[in-house]
Every structure is written in structure tokens, then in C-alpha cells.
Amino acid sequence: MSPGEAHVAPYSRRERLRIATIREIKDVARTLLVQEGPENVTIRAIAREMGMTAPAVYRYFSSRDALILQLRVDIFEEMARFMRGVLGQHPEEEPGRRWISGARALRVWAIKHPHEFGLILGPWAPGLGREETKPERHMSWVFGSVFSDLVADLWRVRGFPAPEVEELDPGLARTLTALSEDQDVDMPPAPSP
């Protein structure tokens, strides 16, 4: 270790077990989702599959909604990684090809994972992890950033007419400004100086 490097302690045994248990709970939940549908992803069913009690599972996830929400976060991230992998095969200077490839990648992922796609972007019933707002924003940024990057590439390479931020609906203006600032997206509209 060089003098400037800080030593980072590895996770304790207890932390590693907790991380592994959370991963297993989510894996079992996803298997249930795929095999039996979202309505059958229950804490009791997961506990039964894992040989645990339902109260033991609640130590890791406070509710079924919290578990489904985390599952949705993971699925959004997986889908975005898949799409970015496909987009990475095309130069940024070819935004048209990247758009087509991105749309095809989304379709391919959705066809290969119909149950997961239905959970995150399809019709849903109350109680499927959509009650919380902070992780929901994270999910939308993770997925939405794939497309905002494509729009930014198109803007950078080809340019296109864009209204001034003052001309937009205030809600849309706030959303676009937040996207531009939070995700470091370089495209209009931008607030006037």
C-alpha cells in the first residue's frame, strides 16, 4: 500500500451475510415474479422458498412494497446497463444509428424479460412498489438518462431548434432543468443567464 492510499476495511462477516441474504431475497422474489406473476411475490412465499420465517424477511425489507420497489430499482438498472452496452457499440457521431439501436435494445430486453418489463413499465396494480417517491426518481433517472444521453448526442452532432426555457410549461421547464443539472446533460433548454 502506498503512503497516500487509505486502507478500506472489508465488510464484516455480519455485513457480508446481510448483503448475501438481501441478494437472495431479491433473487427469490424475481423468480416468483417470473414464474408466478407479481401478485404472488409475497413475503410469506419468499420466506417459504428460503426456509425462513416471514418475520425474519421483514428484518431486511420493512414491507412487500419496499421489496418490490427495490426489485424495480434493480430491474431498471439492469435494463439501462443492457441498453448502454448496445449503444456503446456505435459511435456517438452517429446519433441516428444509436437511437435505432437503443430502441431495438429496449425491445429485445423487454421480449426476453416480459414479467420484469411488465413490473417496471407495464400496467400495474396498487401495492407493487410505486408508493415511495425517492427511489422512483432514481429509477426514472437511471432509465431516462439513457434517452437523455441520446438526445444530447443528437443535439451535439446535428443540432435542432429548441424553445427557450421561458417558453415552456413551468413543470416541463423544471423537469428539464433538473435533468440537465442532476445528470449533467448538455442540451437545451437551459435557463437564461
TrEMBL record:
Keywords: DNA-binding, Transcription, Transcription regulation. InterPro entries: Homeodomain-like_sf, HTH-type_TetR-like_transc_reg, HTH_TetR, Tet_transcr_reg_TetR-rel_C_sf. Residues 19-79 form the HTH tetR-type domain. The keyword NAD does not apply. It comes from the Bacteria. Gene3D superfamilies: Tetracycline Repressor, domain 2 (1.10.357.10). SUPFAM superfamilies: Homeodomain-like, Tetracyclin repressor-like, C-terminal domain. GO terms for molecular function: DNA-binding transcription factor activity; transcription cis-regulatory region binding. Residues 42-61 bind DNA. This is HTH tetR-type domain-containing protein. It comes from Streptomyces antimycoticus.
